[in-house]
Design brief:
Length: 388
């Protein structure tokens, strides 16, 4: 039986970054993953010479220079800037909400004109609530109307949000939208961060760089393995592919599954992808187009080549690949994507987290193991700040 300092369950960003740091520190690591490939949801599939984000679009962004320098030391990132477009019944609007959006919506030309229109519609929403004897928004719809007004809400928020959550906005809690950023400048850059981009050559390059020199095994489900802990808390894990004795376990899978669902299953939202090769060099002219009307069944269309090809270079490949995204309720066997942020699931998750705190020689990390939505950069930052 081989001895390791760390057995890392899951090769997504948390697991791969942890393995990188541990390996650099001279620790013996084994990374296992139940999928046939490494990288978790960052994995890219090459289709027609295009890196397709198989598990959904991933855009790295951060204002933390240490994090940015770290990932760029692994692989150089390109200059991609996230500037999504919203399609509402054939009309196009820039996101996030900025002067380009307001000019298209209302024909306004100055920040003063846009602000006047926003304030007028916000005031209408507040007065309507007061007339009903309400002082605080009771649901997401009322919250959005007081923050942004009816025109932006009805065209760019309502239909998209209801498709994303599978519920009416009037049935969703107000706290889901704490704020709606409004920019009174002509700036379509979605993020406010200092740095953003995509790894040149795709995210597989980042994962391969993080796991270079680390022992990895794919096609192994941790829960199909024979597992035991000794009196010191050290682990023995066996399968038909390996036998490992490790000092510590790093677990990045589903939190409830680790504890055999003893408090019941945590819920998720998931995404179904419909990916298609198109015989055109440029299908929609942008990486991300959101469909914000209720009638279009998908939430957005991703055209993957725009993450890595810019300007005239888009036409060097005569084909393109698009993915339509359909948000849906999660069921067993589906990929869990987004934790459901409601009272029932948050309460249940907290009970599981309390169990995790008392687990000897187990590190729980990442979106699934913490039942918490993360962007990529905070995951990297978290691992960089750990004592390994």
């Amino acid at each position: 039986m081989k001895k390791y300092d760390y057995l890392i369950v899951g090769s997504g960003l948390f697991g791969a970054t942890f393995a990188y740091r541990a390996h650099k520190a001279g620790k013996r690591c084994l990374v296992i993953d139940k999928r046939a490939q490494l990288g978790g949801n960052l994995y890219c599939e090459n289709v027609e010479g295009i890196n397709v984000h198989k598990y959904g679009a991933h855009i790295f962004h951060t204002s933390n220079k240490q994090v940015w320098n770290f990932v760029n030391d692994i692989v150089e990132f390109n200059r991609y800037t996230n500037s999504p477009v919203a399609n509402f019944k054939g009309s196009l609007y820039n996101l996030p909400f900025n002067m380009n959006t307001f000019a298209e919506l209302w024909g306004v030309k100055t920040p003063e004109e846009a602000l006047s229109k926003l304030d007028e519609q916000r005031k209408e929403a507040v007065e309507k609530m007061k007339a009903e004897g309400v002082s605080e928004p009771r649901n997401l719809e009322e919250q959005a109307l007081t923050l942004i007004g009816k025109d932006v809400y009805e065209k760019l928020i309502k239909g998209y949000t209801e498709k994303q959550w599978g519920r009416k906005c009037t049935d969703l809690p107000a706290f889901i939208i704490k704020r709606l950023p409004v920019r009174l400048v002509f700036d379509n850059n979605y993020f406010n961060d200092s740095y953003q981009g995509i790894p040149i050559g795709g995210y597989n390059k980042l994962i391969d760089g993080l796991l270079e020199g680390v022992e990895t095994i794919t096609g192994v489900d941790f829960f199909d393995c024979e597992r035991s802990q000794d009196a010191q808390g050290e682990w023995e894990v066996k399968s038909d592919k390996f036998e490992a004795h490790c000092t510590q376990l790093v677990y990045t899978g589903q939190l409830d599954e680790f504890f055999d669902y003893q408090f019941g299953k945590l819920n998720f939202r998931t995404v179904r992808f419909e990916t298609e090769v198109k015989d055109t060099a440029n299908y929609q002219g942008n990486a991300v187009v959101n469909y914000t009307d209720a009638e279009t069944p998908y939430t957005r269309v991703i055209e993957h080549k725009h993450f890595e090809s810019f300007g005239q270079a888009v036409y060097e490949n005569p084909k393109t690949v698009i993915s339509r995204e359909y948000s849906t309720e999660w069921k067993d066997g589906m990929e869990p994507y987004y934790p459901v942020n409601d009272e029932e699931n948050n309460s249940k998750a907290e009970r599981y987290r309390n169990l995790a705190k008392n687990c000897k020689n187990v590190i729980f990390g990442g979106r699934l193991a913490e039942y918490k939505y993360y962007d990529m950069a905070p995951i990297v930052e978290q691992v960089l700040n750990m004592d390994i």
